[in-house]
Amino acid sequence: MKKVLFTLALAACSTFAVNAQAPATAAPQATPAAPTHPPLTDKKAPRFQFMSGETHDFGTLKEGPSAEYTFEFKNTGKQPLIITNASASCGCTVPEWPKEPILPGKMGKLKVTFNTAGKAGQPFTKTVYINSNAASDKDRYEIYIKGNVAANTAAAAPAKN
Question: What is the pTM for the complete model shown?
Fold first, then answer.
């Protein structure tokens, strides 16, 4: 009986030791996606040309209401410009972009809304990231909004009876 128990224990330990030494199979590594935009050297590729620059300065805003600015741009390339996504550096900034292709030589608009609530006394600079097929030396195109948020004195003043 002792021999049987000893044999079973030895078999169990051997099985454990063999499994412990088996190489772990690595999870397949994701291949980084190739950029979807052509290089700047591609003369036919779509291109952004922002009519009033790539940065908008709101100056000083009152806390509370949302501030909006519409960036107007032109496709100066020779192929349709397609924006696949636009996102911002924080949740207080929301971009809206055209979903249809912008043909060569045509204009497009990208509206950016900034929520000033809870930001009194703070300067801000926010980045809007644009994923598109435009020629670029980066993975995505960037535009900016900036300014300062002042306390809304009308909301802060006590009500008069």
Answer: 0.71
